[in-house]
Each structure stands twice: as C-alpha cells, then as structure tokens.
Design a protein that fits this description.
Blueprint: H1 8-20, H2 29-38, H3 70-77, H4 85-88, E1 96-97, E2 103-107, H5 112-117, H6 124-135, E3 144-148, H7 162-179, E4 183-187, H8 189-196, H9 202-205, E5 209-212, E6 215-220, H10 223-228, H11 233-249
Helix pairs in contact: 1-2, 2-6
Bound molecules: uracil.
Length: 250
C-alpha cells in the first residue's frame, strides 16, 4: 500500500496543511496525494480487540424488507417515500463507488451539495475524506463504497431524528449485506452509534474494532468535524491505521 511509506507526522501535516491550518502541498489535494505517494517511512498499527456484534443494529420495526438484488435495491431506494424527508429532498443520495468495494464508508446524511448532485460526500468534508482515504491507498474510483445512514437531506442540515434513522436503516442494512465489504468505516456519531450499537460519545466509540454482521467496523470522526477541530486529526489518523491493519490482515 502507498501508505506503507508515509510517516504519520508527515501525513498529519499534509492533512492539516491542505484543509485546516496552513497549506503544505499548497492546499492542493492532488499535490498532497502525490506527496503521500512519494513519501518514505512507516509502521503498521496493531489490530485492536474485536468486539462481538452489539444488540442495536440497523433495521426497521415495521417489517420493511428491501430488495435483495443490488440494482433493484437502488431503484427502489431512489424512489423511497417512507418518511417525511422525501418531501424536501431534490434527490435520494444512495451511494458512490463500487458495490464490490473492499471498504464501505458510512456517513450521516446528505447535505446541500449531495442533495443537488445525488452523490455522497461531494462538499468540502467529502474532499477531505477523499484525501484521507487516498493516504491509505483507498478511493471511490477503485475500492471504496460510500453511503450514509440517511439517504435524504434533513432540512437545514439538522441532525437525523431517531425515527428517520429507524425508517431509513433497512436500506443501509441491505447495502451492507450486498456489498459485503472487508471493512466498514463509520464516520461521525450517528453512523458510529448505529453500527456499533453503543450509545456513547464519539471519543469513546473510536479507537477500537467492532464487528457488524461479522464485518470489522472502525468508527472515527466525521471529516466535517476535522475541519472544525484539528485536534481530532491525530486520532482520526490512528483510526485509519486500524482500518489499514484490518485490510492488511484480511
Ligand atoms: N456529510 C455526510 O455525513 N454525508 C454526506 O454525504 C455529506 C456530508
């Protein structure tokens, strides 16, 4: 992997410089990626304890059973009217990347850019996510599938409501069953709590490996949170090393 040769501190500088503090790589993601690819270095993080599946998992109490064929699932989801978010959306944001990807990234909910384009993580936070993924040799073009807990934008970008998460989560559950990635990366509190089944703060969720449906799951900070708070870049880096460790061992 490309990242085998990048010292953690340098990568942190790249991430901070491009998006948060001062431009190393001139603030240019392509330059940062080149720098990642060319840098010498690194260590492999130890794999943390794998915990058993927890009790709370995505699913709906109304018995809704989404299609078990990927194309049928997508067609059904993009016409979904199962909750009130359908009224305010421009379009359903189902996924980006490959359905046969090795890593599945699960975010929170579409924002304005995603609602307009129909693709997850296309704004500033998405660009940061792409850069961090690239630093561990992952990209939506090659080996990453990206989606969200909610498929429709909550008005004014408010937090997802519990009933929206419950109503929407059968889509996510089926996506995970069909994509069957080698690892899941939950970014942010809502996906982290949903998939780990633990109702605790993100700082307590991150830093370990869970399993969801037998698939290793890592929880980390949402890229939008990193843009606001550079202190979380370092723990995010550590979580990506956990992810990398899983991929190297599987
Ligand atoms: N934040 C998310 O959690 N998902 C997106 O698709 C965009 C921003």
């Amino acid at each position: 992997m490309v990242f085998d040769s990048l010292p953690a501190e340098r990568a942190l500088e790249i991430l901070r410089g491009s998006f948060v503090v001062t431009p190393a790589s001139g603030g240019d993601p392509a330059a940062a990626r080149r720098e990642v690819a060319e840098a010498p270095g690194p260590t492999v993080a130890p794999l943390a304890m794998v915990r058993p599946d927890k009790v709370i998992q995505p699913g709906s109490s109304d018995g809704f059973d989404p299609p078990a064929d990927y194309d049928a699932l997508r067609s059904a989801a993009i016409q979904c009217t199962r909750c009130g978010l359908a009224d305010g959306r421009t379009q359903v944001v189902f996924s980006d990347g490959h359905p046969d990807a090795s890593v599945m990234v699960v975010g929170e909910a579409p924002g304005a850019n995603e609602d307009r384009t129909g693709l997850p993580f296309v704004g500033r936070a998405g660009k940061l996510l792409d850069l961090i993924l690239a630093s561990v040799d992952l990209s939506r073009e090659r080996n990453v599938y990206i989606c969200n807990v909610l498929k429709c934008r909550p008005p004014g970008n408010r937090n997802p409501l519990p009933h929206e998460i419950e109503t929407c989560s059968p889509w996510l559950r089926r996506q995970i069953e069909l994509v069957r990635p080698r690892a899941i990366l939950a970014v942010g509190t809502f996906s982290g709590r949903l998939l780990s089944g633990r109702d605790v703060a993100l700082g307590k969720l991150r830093g370990q490996v869970y399993t969801y449906q037998g698939i290793p799951l890592v929880v980390t900070y949402h890229p939008a949170a990193l843009l606001r708070n550079p202190r979380w870049v370092r723990p995010t880096w550590d979580d990506f090393q956990l992810l990398r460790g899983i991929l190297e061992r599987s």
